[in-house]
Structure formats: C-alpha cells, structure tokens
Design goal:
By secondary structure, this protein is mainly α. It is 30% helix and 7% strand. The protein is built from two helices and two strands. A two-stranded antiparallel ribbon has the order 1-2. It is rod-shaped and about 120 Å long.
Length: 116
C-alpha cells in the first residue's frame, strides 16, 4: 500500500509562499545588477549537484558576465612608403638594368629626342 502524503498546514503553505517571494525578489535584484544565473562547477569543471537537505540550491551560481574586449583603436594609417630608386637606376633608360655598349647610348639619344 502506498503511503499518503502528509497534509501541510496553512502556516507551512504561507511560509513557503513568502520564501518563494523573497527568493524571486533577490533574483530580480541580482538580474538588475547585471548578474546572470549559471550552473555551478567544481575545480575540474564538472557540474555540482543540489543537496536536497539544504534550503539553498547549490547547483546554481550568480556570476557577472564578462564584457567583450573592446577593439583597439587603430592609429591613422601611415603614409605609403616612398619609392626609392635603386642605386644602379639609369634616368636615361628608366631601368635599373644597366645597358652596355651602343644600346645605352642609343637609349639616351631616344630620351633626348622624346621618341621613347
């Protein structure tokens, strides 16, 4: 035969209601402060279970969420690097490959004439 549940008195029911109201008010205050309810974990990262013999629920903790890191403000971009002509750059031929012999002199004449 199954056991019957013990009947609670009106005082017990009222006390339970008040406790729930107080707990709800505390939760609302924590949420207003920016906290959120997260599962409690032990040192190894495993969930902690609730102990039914205590009135407090040990399985949940209040933690303030971490704010995301603000992106770094980038400084104004630097001016692009100026082109540096190689030391063997020849203005007449507009090339850094040296021309030897008559090709070099021909290129200089073309630059002077404006044909190149």
């Amino acid at each position: 035969m199954a056991q019957r549940r013990k009947r609670r008195s009106k005082a017990e029911i009222e006390a339970e209601k008040k406790a729930k109201e107080i707990q709800a008010a505390e939760e609302a205050a924590k949420k207003a402060e920016g906290y959120e309810k997260v599962r409690a974990r032990d040192d190894e990262g495993h969930f902690i279970k609730d102990d039914p013999s205590t009135p407090e629920n040990e399985a949940w903790d209040w933690k303030k969420p971490e704010e995301p890191a603000k992106p770094e403000v980038k400084a104004e971009p630097e001016e692009p690097a100026k082109l540096v002509k190689p030391s063997n750059y020849d203005e007449a031929t507009h090339s850094d490959v040296p021309l030897y012999g008559s090709a070099r002199f021909r290129a200089k004449k073309e630059v002077k004439k404006g044909t190149r």
